[in-house]
């Protein structure tokens, strides 16, 4: 009899908890479908530190619904994790925080995990086309530069021996071609470099997509980072 009484008591307690779970004086609508705007609000609020239980009460759904929303927003469930630590200088930390702030991101660990997850893309070797362009330009500059060096040696030798400077129209043409080639190289390199930076920025933005929130602007004169900081991050093992 005592055992049966305990079983009934446990069932009653479970039913009572089930009824009040995630509510704030009301009944949870377990089957209510969240709107896209509500899902966005849930993700942003959770990023700022609001607990799943508080979100369940606010939106009138179960905690499981909140967790499912967060999991779907983050993609596949991550595997086992491990904690790593690293030391950063004040300059390194400030630079990282400033880069995230320019994108409206405040969750530093999440941003670092995203960047580490995109390492294969962000840290891939240089594009073969870019490498070929640089090698071709380098060879051209070296060849024309060698011709200019020969002219310089010829003029220097004549000066040391007290002879008339053997500077010809052909020498002038060679120097002008070399100067024009340098200008062309600088402009081509600038265009190529800016294109590479733009592509890398798009890759970083794609890796950090979903972490941007409307954060308030930092106040002027706020305290700077300490001289050195040790941070611990959780990443996939």
What does this structure look like?
The chain is mainly alpha-helical and 237 residues long. Among the domains are: 21-77, Arc Repressor Mutant, subunit A; 128-207. It is 63% helix and 8% strand. It has nine helices and two strands, in the order ααααβαααααβ. The chain has helices at residues 2-20, 36-47, 52-59, 63-74, 90-102, 108-117, 119-122, 128-160, 169-207, and strands at 81-89, 228-236. A two-stranded antiparallel sheet has the order 1-2. Helix 3 crosses helix 4 (63-74) and helix 8 (128-160) packs antiparallel against helix 9. The longest helix has 39 residues, at 169-207. The radius of gyration is 32 Å and the shape is rod-shaped.
Cross-sheet strand order for the largest sheet: 1-2
Q: What composes the largest sheet?
A: 2 strands, antiparallel
The mean pLDDT is 75
Beta-strand content bin: 5-15%
Helix percent band: 55-70%
Radius of gyration: 32 Å
Number of strands: 2
Q: Would you list the SSEs in sequence order as H and E? A: HHHHEHHHHHE
Q: Short summary of the structure?
A:
This protein has 237 residues and is mainly α. It has helices spanning 2-20, 36-47, 52-59, 63-74, 90-102, 108-117, 119-122, 128-160, 169-207, and strands at 81-89, 228-236.
């Amino acid at each position: 009899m005592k055992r049966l009484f305990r079983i009934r008591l446990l069932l009653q307690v479970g039913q009572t908890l089930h009824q009040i779970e995630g509510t704030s004086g009301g009944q949870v609508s377990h089957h209510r479908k969240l709107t896209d705007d509500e899902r966005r609000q849930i993700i942003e609020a959770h990023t700022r530190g609001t607990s799943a239980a508080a979100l369940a009460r606010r939106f009138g759904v179960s905690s499981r619904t909140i967790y499912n929303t967060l999991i779907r927003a983050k993609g596949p469930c991550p595997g086992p994790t491990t904690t790593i630590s690293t030391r950063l200088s004040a300059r390194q930390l400030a630079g990282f925080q400033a880069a995230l702030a320019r994108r409206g991101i405040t969750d530093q660990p999440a941003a670092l995990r995203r960047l580490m997850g995109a390492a294969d893309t962000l840290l891939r070797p240089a594009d073969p086309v870019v490498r070929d362009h640089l090698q071709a330009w380098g060879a051209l500059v070296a060849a024309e530069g060698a011709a200019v060096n020969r002219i310089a040696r010829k003029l220097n030798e004549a000066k040391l021996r007290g002879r008339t400077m053997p500077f010809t129209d052909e020498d002038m043409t060679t120097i002008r071609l070399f100067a024009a080639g340098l200008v062309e190289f600088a402009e081509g390199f600038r265009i190529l470099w800016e294109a590479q930076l733009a592509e890398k920025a798009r890759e970083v933005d794609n890796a950090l997509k979903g972490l941007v929130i409307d954060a308030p602007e930092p106040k002027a004169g706020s305290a700077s980072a300490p001289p050195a900081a040790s941070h611990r991050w959780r990443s996939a093992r």
